Amino acid sequence: MFWLFFSLDTKSTPMKKYLLLLPEGIILALTGYWFVDNYVVSNHINLIALTVSIVVVSQIIIKNKFFGLVISSAISLFSWYMILAVFSEFREFETVTFESLQLLLFGLLLCFLGLISSGLLFFKYATSQKQLL
Fold it and tell me: How far apart are the first and last CA of the chain?
């Protein structure tokens, strides 16, 4: 369903302009959550989350096709890595409890949200008509 709004003309509706920013918005929300969680829990600034946020915001402004593909590929690889990390943490529980299921479901939700967003971002820049550099 999401790929349908990528093929439409961007000047056809004002809402289309904002729908095209949906993958970047989801990625910014995930990195914002990651940054705030690290700051609140351990009282340190997560420089990786801050850097990813700055790179995604600059990509929204610049809209470079090459860097859009690189960013989406890196986020996709990181999401796959985090899926494996969630399963690894789940296997450390000796019995299946509410907390273990909560970890599994919430962790997979965040990971698949990042994976889907990176896929949409990759599709968005792979089908754009701009030059690579």
Answer: 30
